[in-house]
Each structure stands twice: as C-alpha cells, then as structure tokens.
C-alpha cells in the first residue's frame, strides 16, 4: 500500500479581472485586503463572488495596472493621463493603498491635475493633500491656478500655509529660574523676523531629544538634564491648533539622542542612547490608542540616526565600517528594515538626510572633514542611482544640517542667516535670504500650519 503524500499548502485563489481589452490574473486575498469594493463583492454571496472572471466596465486598464503595481510594492511614475485614471480607480474600487500612494506622489508638476481629479472623483484625502501642497507653493503656481474653477481656488485660499519653525537645545528649568529663551519660534517671512510661538513646559527638554511633527502637532520624546544625562521621563505634545501643551507616555525604553518620526498616525522612536550605550530598539506610539509597542530593531545600534520620509516611506542612514553609509527603508506591513543602497564617503561631522519627491539627499561635511563646508549626495529611488550635487554649501552661511523642504524650496538656518534654495532636478539653487535664528547651539526645524492669531512676541 502506497502511503498518501501530505498535501502542500493550497495555491492562493485567483480571479481574472477584465478591464477594457486586458485581462489581469490577481490573488483574491490581495484584492480583499486592498479594496473595499472587492471586499464587499467577494463576501456578498452573489454569483459574481464565485466567478472565475469579472469585468470592470467603468475603469481603464492603465488605472487598474497602476493599482496592481502599487500593491506589488512598486513606485510607478505616472503620466498625467495615468494619474487621472489611477485617481478614478482608487475612488471606484475604494483602494486605500493606491489612494495613499497618490497622496505621497503630489508634487509641483502634478498637484493641480491631481487636485482637480480628486475633486471630480471624490477622493477626499488626496483632494485635501493636493490643496495643501498648492497653498504652500501658491506664488510659484499662481499662473496655473487661474485655470481652476472658482470654488477650487477658494478652497486653496481658505487653507493655512505652512510656516518654518525652529527650536534650540534647552534643558528643563525650575519655575523660579525660568529661562525666557526656552521657546519654540517661527519665521514671519513678511516682516523677516523670528517670533515666539510657544514656551516649552518647565519639565521638557529639547537637548538630545527626539522632536517630530504630525497632524499639526509637535511631539517631544526623551531629552536629558544634568551632568549625568538623566533622561526626561515624560513626553510632551504641542497642538498648534489649540496653542496648548499636553503630556503623554514615554517609550518603554527610556532614550536620548533619539530620532523621532511621525508617520501615518504613529510616532517612531528610532534608536538613541541610554546610559551612554547606543540602542538598536525601535518603538511605535499609536496616537489613537496612546500606547507604545516595540517594532523591528534597527540592523545595528544607532544614535541621532539621519532619517527622512519619501513616497510615504521611512528611510534611515546607518554608518558601517570603512566609511560606508547604508540606507534602509522601513517596511511597515512586514515590520522589517530593508537595505536600499550604500554610499562610500569619508565620514565627518554633521551627517543628515532630507527628501524631495523620489530623491533622498544625504548631507555631510567635507571635503577632508572641513566642518565649514557641506557636500550633498542624492539617491534617486526610481532610477536607483547616486549623484553628487554640484558645488559646495558653506555652513557659515546656512546650516544645511537643519534643512526642511516645503514644496520645491529648501529652508536652512543658523544664527546669522536663513537661506532658501530652489530644488531644480539635480541641483539646489540659491533663492532667497532671510533673518537668522538668534540663538546659539544646535537647532531642530520643521513646518507647522499656524492659526491666524497674534503670537507677535519677537525673539
């Protein structure tokens, strides 16, 4: 008698989707996971839920293909027509991953098109995100705005533009020794002056703290006080809409010199130090449930980890021996850090990273460890190629290690000057000069949308 062989796992159930004249074979589970339309269809019990082939008459093949590519983890570069067809597909199929990809793809070339398409097909999150982008680049997009319907122009004008924010490194203080310089400040570009937005809570530290923004709030985690670098055990949140501070729980592992990132409703506390030991643990804070949980460790211990977000993903730089920087991407669905690329350059002081469109810009001092000069290497996530930006940026005229990008404009600042650069293909061109931030020491910078009320306290 021949024993029966153990059956292997059943192959995933697939369905053929006919769109226009093309047929796509897709796993049912992928469609159920990613589309409200297919989730309802396959669970409805109707005859269509068991058919081997379905026809989608209202969509284009190009839009459906764009969705499948995004679901496969690709980052497709879409033409104008493909973008509109992808918006239609995301709306009709209620495909959340495709809608989020379109939100993170908004740029100065496609924002007006995506804004109008989102208005037509009712994709609310994309509509609002594109409108915010247009508001932040209003002057540069003014000519194109004239072609929009009046109600769409009015909605853009009703929004608050983002403002350049800076905070210095401050340790906690006592009420009777209150330090009036412990403030978060914003750049009033019309009057070319830095003004006070809010005073830090007495117990908060921004010295070696993780600071991040998300949903128009500033979050502060960690930080130290005292000669022995005692970690501040409370975390703090400033709500720009209400002009109020609140406290929230600190990570399970206390840490300083930590990188904090706000991403899709969660804060990520990445690495850092504790008792002079570098950490590789990473914790995630769910703002909705107000809870911290550990996620996948970094590949190696790291403090003050350079980090940026591009195309809706988190990227970090980690240093390896022999002058190698490795860029990793955090894959949230699989909870993994995946190596993306590496760069061999002599290490030096002041390493950081910012993102624009599908480019990651890694900034460091040099050449020859000259801390007054900055060189920038650019990695394109689509072509997977490195380039070096022409020219060198002198830190004494603009501290590029505090750079943030709004639209196509880079904001950098030090005590003497705030410099603005225009991002043009593979170059940064000098654009404008503003007042420097009149505080010594290291800075952290970010963007907020400030309600129309008088702060008006000059720094």
Q: Could you characterize the architecture of this molecule?
A:
This protein has 459 residues and is α+β, with helices and mostly antiparallel strands. It contains 9 helices and 33 strands. The protein is globular and about 70 Å long. Residues 1-10 have low confidence and may be disordered.
Q: In a nutshell, what does this entry contain?
A:
The chain is α+β, with helices and mostly antiparallel strands and 459 residues long. It has 2 domains: 14-158, Potassium Channel Kv1.1, Chain A (2-Layer Sandwich); 162-458, Neuraminidase (6 Propeller), CATH 2.120.10.
Task: Record keyword descriptors for this entry.
single chain, 459 residues, alpha+beta, Potassium Channel Kv1.1, Chain A, Neuraminidase, 2 domains, five-stranded antiparallel β-sheet, 9 helices, 33 strands, disordered N terminus
| Strand numbers in spatial order across the main sheet | 32-4-5-6-33
Determine the fraction of residues in helical runs and give it as a percent range: 10-25%
What is the number of independent domains? 2
CATH superfamily of the largest domain: Kelch-type beta propeller
End-to-end separation: 90 Å
Q: Regarding CATH, which class of the largest domain?
A: Mainly Beta
Determine Rg (CA atoms, Å). Answer: 24 Å
Number of helices: 9
Assembly type of the shown chains? single chain
Please identify the structural class as seen in this structure.
alpha+beta
Task: Give the arrangement of secondary structure elements.
Elements: E1 14-19, E2 22-27, H1 28-34, H2 36-42, E3 53-56, H3 61-71, H4 80-92, H5 96-104, H6 111-121, H7 124-136, H8 138-145, H9 150-158, E4 162-168, E5 183-188, E6 193-199, E7 209-214, E8 217-222, E9 224-225, E10 230-231, E11 235-239, E12 244-248, E13 259-263, E14 266-270, E15 273-274, E16 277-278, E17 282-286, E18 291-295, E19 307-310, E20 313-320, E21 324-331, E22 336-344, E23 352-356, E24 359-365, E25 373-380, E26 385-388, E27 393-394, E28 404-406, E29 409-413, E30 417-424, E31 427-435, E32 443-449, E33 457-458
Parallel strand pairs: 1-3
Antiparallel strand pairs: 1-2, 4-5, 4-32, 5-6, 6-33, 7-8, 8-11, 9-10, 11-12, 13-14, 14-17, 15-16, 17-18, 19-20, 20-21, 21-22, 23-24, 24-25, 25-26, 25-27, 28-29, 29-30, 30-31
Helix pairs in contact: 1-2, 3-4, 4-5, 4-6, 5-7, 6-7
